[in-house]
Amino acid sequence: MAQNIEIEFKNMLTKAEYEGILLAFNIEKKQIFTQENLYFDTPDFSLKNAKSALRIRKKDTNYEMTLKQPREIGLLETNQKLTQEETSAAIHDGILPSGQIKQLIEENNIPFAKLVYFGSLITNRVELAYENGLLVLDHSIYLQHEDYEMEYEVEDYQEGLKKFQALLSQFKIPQRQSENKVQRFYNQKYKQTKTN
Q1: Domains along the chain?
Q2: What is the 3-state secondary structure (H, E, C) of 19-46?
Q3: Which residues, including other chains, have CB under 8 Å from residue 175's CB and lie 6 or more apart?
Q4: Residues 54-98 pLDDT 10s
Q5: CA angle at residue 113 from 108 to 117, to 5 degrees?
Q6: Which of 47, 94, 96, 154 counts the highest number of beta carbons within 10 A?
Q7: pLDDT of the residue at 42
């Protein structure tokens, strides 16, 4: 189990902007890797309403459950390694493993046993070191929808903000309000339930 504060800046991209940045940084196809996020919440979106999110990330043969909770600056991430069997039980049987994440969720008066699997989001990702931070370019596919996004993860908020804005300016990309992946996933799921 590990915890860290995540400070990152995000901006949605058009497909053309995304492809232009890949070209500018000479990104080859082999540098792009795929990961899958499996999202969980209660049927009445208790975690979402608490501005939190729970996911299990599958990357190669590794599985990690992450709870994201809001902080004054950034998000508190609590991570817990899982086995393939624990992940399978979470998806198919609705049984999530005990540990600190369970404790943190229940401290917010959210019944851990009521969490259910909502679906998955597949991301084709490239990560590169950039100006004392980590630049991430994502192409995400979920619920018959796809989008493109740039993230910049940093240690220092003020310094990171300046460098992120300079990068957007360099590529002539307008600053766009960008929700995180789980919010975009939930919005798409909500839209689908309204049209069905």
Answers
A1: 2-191 (2.40.320.10)
A2: HHHHHHCCCCHHHCEEEEEEEEECCCCH
A3: 11, 165, 168
A4: 999 998 889 999 999 998 887 899 999 999 999 999 999 999 999
A5: 100
A6: 96
A7: 92
